[in-house]
Amino acid sequence: MLSSYADCPRRAAAKQFRKLFAADGYEFRQLAPSVGSAAGTALHVITGEMNRAVWNGEQFRLDDALQMAFQGFSEGIAEGCEWDATTPNTNTAEYQIRRMAAVYKPRMPLTIDGAPAIEIGGEYGIRANAGDGWTLSGHPDLIGADAAVDDTKSGVVLRPHQPQLGGYSLLLRSNNLVRPTRIGLTFIQRIAKTKPQKPPVIVEYSIPEAERYAMGVIKRIKSDMATYKETGDLEQSFLVNPCSMMCSPKFCPAHGTDFCPITK
Ligand code: SF4
């Protein structure tokens, strides 16, 4: 949640701490997954298999990976999906997932505890004490053999993610797993079927700056939540941003609810 918190703290809080607010009587919308996140998850399945094949010294089998990815995609959208203008249906999504995977360049992962450093941390991610009873957790997509931390992003637009990558760097250093040499993104654009697929864009962030951004957001989340616990007052605790691109009943569980009265 670190990268998206500043866009609308109230939406981020509603998504991340929903159970806590539900216990206070707030009700939220059920959101269908967006095609962007479902396609992104499918692409991660394939890129993870590609990197694992490099680590294992095996031939990568694209058809097997695509089958797994498409099955996950169809399970992910089984109960509905927010399609968009770039990806209006399953056929288009599968076509795009296939060609996004085709431009990904696999890398040799670092070995940690005898396993490739791909989405490390298991079910709960890598965890670290964030102070005041808080835990920071996260799943870096890939730590390369050169100790470079890389997150794969697919989407229609490339957005900045310094706080997320800074959070990964903090997690890795505080667990003494690795001192990252670089942190950044591999962005593979999801493009309309009628246009050619572009190559990936590699983005690198300054580690000290990204860690500072991450710490700033972590402190703000803790402070906002502490204010809410103390006052129970949403307006004092979490800013709203109705100008956000994601301020819509499609993307925000609080839209039109008592948790965000400005949109009622
Ligand atoms: S409805 Fe809009 S302003 Fe309200 S929490 Fe969601 S994104 Fe933020």
Structural class: alpha+beta
Specify the biggest β-sheet: 4 strands, mixed
N-to-C CA distance: 25 Å
Number of strands: 8
Which ions, cofactors or small ligands are bound in this entry?
iron/sulfur cluster
> Which CATH architecture would you pick?
Alpha-Beta Complex
Oligomeric state of the chains in view: single chain
* CA-based gyration radius: 19 Å
What sort of overall outline do the alpha carbons produce when their principal axes are compared?
Answer: globular
Overall domain count:
1
Helix fraction by DSSP (H/I, runs of at least 4): 40-55%
Regions with little confidence, pLDDT below 50 for 5+ residues: none
Order of helices and strands: HHHHHEEEEEEHEEHH
User: At the first level of CATH, what is the class?
Assistant: Alpha Beta
Strand content: 5-15%
Biggest sheet strand line-up: 5-6-7-8
| Helix segment tally | 8
Mean pLDDT metric: 97
Summarize the entry for a quick read.
The protein has eight helices and eight strands; from the N terminus they run H-H-H-H-H-E-E-E-E-E-E-H-E-E-H-H. The protein is an alpha+beta fold. Strands 5-6-7-8 form a four-stranded mixed beta sheet. A two-stranded antiparallel sheet has the order 1-2. The chain has a two-stranded antiparallel ribbon with strand order 3-4.
Q: Which terms summarize this structure?
A:
41% helix, two-stranded antiparallel ribbon, alpha+beta, 4-stranded mixed β-sheet, 264 residues, 8 strands, binds iron/sulfur cluster, Lambda Exonuclease, Chain A, single chain
